[in-house]
Amino acid sequence: MRLRAPVLNPGKIVACAVNYAEHVAEMASVHQRVGGDRPAWLMRFDVFLKAPSSIVGPADAVVLPPVPVAEGREIHHESELSFVIGKGGANIPERKAFDHIAGYTIGLDMTVRGEGDRSRRKSYNTFTPLGPWLTTADEIADPHALRITLSVNGETRQDVDTATMSMRIPAIVAYASSVMRLDPGDVVLTGSPSGVGQVKAGDVIDTSITGLGSMRIRVIPGSDQQV
Fold first, then answer.
1. DSSP string for 3-62
2. What is the pLDDT of residues 176-198, one digit of tens each?
3. Which residues of 65-79 are buried (b: 16+ CB within 10 A; e: fewer)?
4. Residue 103's closest CA among 140, 145, 128?
5. Distance (Å, whole) CA 72 – CA 70
6. Whether the model pTM is above 0.90
């Protein structure tokens, strides 16, 4: 049996930026290495959109886009606790946020580093692996007490507890829904912990989150042929 992504065609993917303090600190050295502007606003919490067409499932691979690779751009992994909206709404108060969540899943927010709009650099095809399935909200007593781990070729890179999240899930739901209506099926990525790093063709990414399962994702070279 080949598992597909637990959400195939959401109206939108809402992603959180700058939600772990240690990740903010490590990004200073990343920006120095890869170049690109680092205005003050880029280092503050906010939300942005990723293309739903970037979603793939736990049995799929991350395909490296040929143009950024040819330009020598670094492509990084970011493993994130993610949730799916079950009950839509706008201007949702924090006290009711959990009533709007259908369940949780693992999300990989793959990223081309360097200059350019955040949404574009994170929206290449296959840049949002989701899975391995949707764990319903009633099965997770506290989403802020989960361990996120990620390794590349057996080398541990990310190992963080969601308790260290700066903006917690009720605040994320309240803020995002004050900007845009959240609809059933929308996916929300809660932000990357520290430990991000480059991946190359041939790498194997293993990531897991307590209670949500694990995914093994291959990284393969891309092609500029039309599909």
1. ---S-SS-S-EEEEES-BHHHHHHHHHHHHHH-----GGGGS-EEEEE-GGGEE-TTSEE
2. 999 999 999 999 999 999 999 99
3. beebbeeebbbbbbb
4. 140
5. 5
6. yes
